[in-house]
Amino acid sequence: MLLLFLNLNRNNQSEDNVSLNKVCHLFCPYFSNESVPCFLYRVVPSFQQQRIFVTSLACPSWSLTSTVMAAAVRFFIRGANSRLSVGTGTSGSLGAALLKLSPSCSSRSKTQRRHAAHFTYQPDPVPTQYGETQKMNLFQSVTSALDNTLSSDPTAVIFGEDVAFGGVFRCTVGLRDKYGKDRVFNTPLCEQGIVGFGIGAAVAGATAIAEIQFADYIYPAFDQIVNEAAKYRYRSGNLFDCGNLTIRAPWGCVGHGSLYHSQSPEAFFAHCPGIKVSPHKVKDNIKCSFTDGDPPHHSRAVMQVPSQSPVGEDPTEENYFAGCRQICDLLSVFFQSVVKTGRLLVSHEAPVTGGFAAEISSTVQEECFLNLEAPISRVCGYDTPFPHIFEPFYIPDKWKCFEAIKRMINY
Amino acid sequence: PSNHKGAVLSTLQSLQARAFIFVLFVAVQKCDLHKLDEAPATEVVMTREEGLKYYHIMQTIRRMELKADQLYKQKIIRGFCHLYDGQEACAVGIEAAINMSDHLITAYRAHGYTYTRGGTVKKIMAELTGRRGGIAKGKGGSMHMYCKNFYGGNGIVGAQVPLGAGVALACKYQGNNELCVCLYGDGAANQGQIFETYNMASLWKLPVIFICENNRYGMGTSVERAAASTDYYKRGEFIPGLRVDGMDVLCVREATRFAAEHCRSGKGPILMELQTYRYHGHSMSDPGISYRTRDEIQEVRSKSDPISLLKDRLLSNNMASVEELKVIDVEVRKEIEDAAQFATTDPEPPLDELCNHMFSNNPPVEVRGTNPWAKLKSVS
What we know:
A: six-stranded parallel sheet; B: alpha/beta; two-stranded antiparallel sheet; 12 helices
């Protein structure tokens, strides 16, 4: 088996791409005759790296194959201004022969690199305008935000099921010891009561931070959130409001949560005017929510904030449960990104029908219709309850996203 | 197995030529009453056969839970697993007093009830490991087990109580003299929907027995810190209530008999509080010792373990011999081992089960998948 990898650098001119395209189409029928898997990627501008995999089986047509390969390499090299690196797989001598054909290339160990992702993670630069920074995971940053809030705001109280000892997700560790049991206290097991109580406290002027232990448990409180909290300001003509209320609820799958510890109910609440649903950049959001004036409902990933959400230029992939954007300019960032790249993929764990991806897709296509080069892809959960044994199959993982990206690029 | 057991027993008996007591009159603890003039009997009758049966069932539940603990630690069972050991007398006592045609619904600590209501250990364990031989086809897991006249297995705390009242309404409507036993815990007793249910059940005189299994801790919160009134049997206010020692299987049985009669005579709902204890933590993620001391657990185990209590009763009253009970133990152990073996080796449900049984549909319905080109079929 011969594998030929051609890595072209990112500064390709479009004419190279056109010629590459031609080559690919040229070879396609040949290889398909051989009934051999042939992966040819259509080359798209601004792809960071393009690879063309050409494989063929050994025997009868090897010599023909190698001739064709050599021709291909020569053809590609003719493309000006492109640095090629050619590496080969198992067939050493043929590889060497190919190398000789291309004087200005070097065989690097790039070929040994896995083919899976060719995005390099670029972390956000550390913000300098807030002073000293510290690396924390999601839960620590929540604890820190709550700590700051309780210290700066004397009316702030935290309550919920089991928050006193630190919470089942360790988000309130140490706060009770620091601020006392009248500010950080447990409630009995009654979500409707917790939220109703929180609304009352907020309306009366306290900064209330209610915790719902898992987002799956929030439904008894749905009426209170949607009918009371969300509409208070509106129905009282701004006389009362519960802008000081924050409800925290961990959502998302934990790996073994099954039906009732894995749900993502954000779409239900996003549909309700009057509340803010914020899934990320929790620390900033908690802070801005208390000065903002509308009750936000924080959902946050149960897992640690993954630091490798791909921020590649193309296509735009918005994994909002991974959390990498400011809430206030979320949509404008999407638009800018789509204008630049032409493709969008939205992914979440909640079922696809009526999920939040639908809203994003719809809004983006309204604003950026002419910039789109492929339909917006939604890689989401299936339209079933969150399964017990099928969880690894259910969640929209990187492979499904990758598949969707491939299809969008080949559209 | 019962043939084998019978053969061994008769052999033992003939060897030992011992005369056992076949019927025993036992005094059990008096129950606290709320808005009731009569009380369950304090002098109860237990036959040898009944005693051995209760022992067998309780031992099966205990071993099954311990096996589940073991499998969980080996990561063969994953997800959430809430174990019932320590509370066996509740399940067995209740079942002894009602018929198989009556209905029962409980929360997520349901393995014991699944067994007493007719599920086999094999199917229960296969459901825990999520295999196709499971009682819910492997799709539910620990918290969602069902069988005939047993409505689960419910994950959301307190949500099963209105359901139970609904089942009782159906019984009343159909006039079949059946009732519904509706269980919940001390944590759930503070949920709003429970009180809504009390009101409806009482208003319409539904044949429902509300049972609060008070194991003193709602996950990590002790009852004193969660409830303004820890007299859970009085929380029904206008519903008559009983407080029962939940570690004595006979006490539970008598109280349930009394309650069942109350319901079937058309007097409406009744509330029972079973004072019991769980040895494990709330679930397998909870070590169970951060909010209570090991001494406390040890004390309950030594003084009030339901299986030990029954065993002492049988042995001290000469109703069974030590060897007999040992035979039962061995049998139970074998059954559990076989079930665990089955649960570990049975294949997982096929992937097309993912979308099945969402709606009632014929022909199969298309379910949207992760991508627009990936559509799955839902068969029901």
